[in-house]
Amino acid sequence: MKEEAIFSGFGGQGVLSMGQMLAYAAMKEGKEVCWFPSYGPEMRGGTANCITIISDSLISSPIISTFDTVIALNQPSVEKFEPKVKPGACIIYDSTNIIEPPKRKDIKIYPIAGSEAALKLKNLKVLNMVILGAYTQLKGIVNPETVINALYEILPERHHRLIPLNKEAFELGMDLMMKLV
Questions:
Q1: What pTM, to 2 d.p., does this model score?
Q2: How far is CA 101 from CA 20, 22, 79, in A?
């Protein structure tokens, strides 16, 4: 098993955290992982993405140009990374914010109304957890409980009070994906 994914969006949307949480959960399950962040000098509001590779065997390089999964939280991410999805692979995107959805016919496309779901939870900052839940449900790469447990390791202790909200967002994302597949 090998999964090569890229999480992409604006700085401040939590795309780096999504990839990091996934990598940490996979590491806790004994898998080989690589997490490779990339962001512009603007940080919040600029573009940000991270490549996360999970495998049962050693990973030869963190530098890849095509992906099994693209997770796009904004329009520029769809435009930049849709061409880089491997044929037969998939793209998951936040359908609330993306005006021009992916159009390729040789990939699977999963629109998730992540921002809308986060707003229902009264906190747009959990958009990343909604989308990560959808991804986890679709791909089955890691156990959902391992992802939730990773929150305790990744979030600073002063933010642990937000873990129940993040868990609710994650589970909502899983439910949204179950309705699509």
A1: 0.94
A2: 26, 25, 9
